[in-house]
Amino acid sequence: MATKLVDLVYWRKMRKTGVVFTGLVISLASMFQLSAITVLSHICLGVMSVTFILRLYYKLLELLRWNSGVHPFQSYLDHDSSLTDKETVMVVEEVVLLIAFAWTEIKRLIFIESMIDSIKFVVLLYLLSYVGVQTSGLTLVITAVIVIFSLPLLYKKQQMRIRRMVRAIKAFVKRIKNMCFSLCEAVRPSPAAPPAGAPTPTSTPTPTPAAKQKAKSK
Q1: Which pLDDT score, from 0 to 100, does residue 195 have?
Q2: What's the CA gap between 92 and 9, in Å, rounded?
Q3: How confident is residue 102, by pLDDT bands cut at 50, 70 and 90?
Q4: What is the residue-averaged pLDDT of the chain?
Q5: DSSP of 84-125, one letter per residue?
Q6: Contact 39/27 with Cβ under 8 angstroms?
Q7: Maximum CA pair distance of the chain?
Q8: What is the value of pTM for the model shown?
Q9: Per-residue confidence at 201, pLDDT binned at 50, 70, 90?
Q10: Comparing C-alpha atoms, which of 42, 15, 17, 14 is closest to residue 145?
Q11: DSSP secondary structure of the chain
Q12: What is the distance between the alpha carbons of residues 59 and 48, in angstroms, rounded to a whole number?
C-alpha cells in the first residue's frame, strides 16, 4: 500500500495518478455545495453506470457468439485484497500503538510536562484557530491534496534549481547567525580591570609540615 501511494504521489504512472488526482479534487470541491453522502452516492452511481454498460455489452457479445464469455472485470474480481490473520494482527497493533502514542503526547502537552513543548502547542492551537476563522477545513484538505501531488512533480522537474536555492538559503541563514554571534560578542561587557595604584592581592604561601613543627618547638 505504501509503495502504491508513493507511485501515485511521484506520478510514476501518469494516467492512474491523473485519474486519482482529478477525482479527488472534483469530489472535494463538490462538497462545497453537496453533502459527503450525496457526493459518495453520485460517485458510486457514475462508476456503476459505466461498469453496468460494459457488462451488458460483453453479455450481448457472448449471446451473439462474438465473445468467449470473458467477464470484463474478472481481473478485479480475482484480486485478493483480504488480510491474513498475521497481517490483521499487525494492522491492529499499529493502530493501537498510534492511538496510545497520540493520547500520551496530548496528555504530556495539556498537563505541562515540558514548558517549551506546551508553549509550542498553545501557539499551534492559536494559529489553527485563526486559520479556522479565515478558511474552512475542506479548503485546507483540497490545498493539502494539491500540494501533496504537486510538490514531488515540481521537485522532479526543477531539482537542480531547488537545490541551488536551498544551498543559498542555508548560506544566508548561516551568515545571519554569524553576524548575530559577532554582535553579541561585541556588546558583551569585558571584565572590569582593577584601579590604578590598588595593591594586587598576593597569595600567602601555605606553611609546610616541617615549618609547623618548628614553630611548635619554639
Answers
A1: 55
A2: 26
A3: very high
A4: 81
A5: PHHHHHHHHHHHHHHHHHHHHHHHHHHTTSSHHHHHHHHHHH
A6: yes
A7: 137
A8: 0.55
A9: low
A10: 17
A11: -HHHHHHHHTTSSHHHHHHHHHHHHHHHHHTTTS-HHHHHHHHHHHHHHHHHHHHHHHHHHHHTTSS----TTHHHHH---PPPHHHHHHHHHHHHHHHHHHHHHHHHHHTTSSHHHHHHHHHHHHHHHHHHHHS-HHHHHHHHHHHHHHHHHHHHHSHHHHHHHHHHHHHHHHHHHHHHHHHHHHHSPPPPPPPTTPPPP-PPPPPPHHHHHHHHH-
A12: 16
Output Rg (C-alpha) for the chain, integer angstroms: 36
Contacts of 29 (CB under 8 A, 6+ apart): 142
Residue 124 and residue 109: Cα distance in Å, rounded?
12
Each residue of 49-72: b (16+ CB within 10 Å) or e?
Answer: eeeeeeeeebeeeeeeeeeeeeee
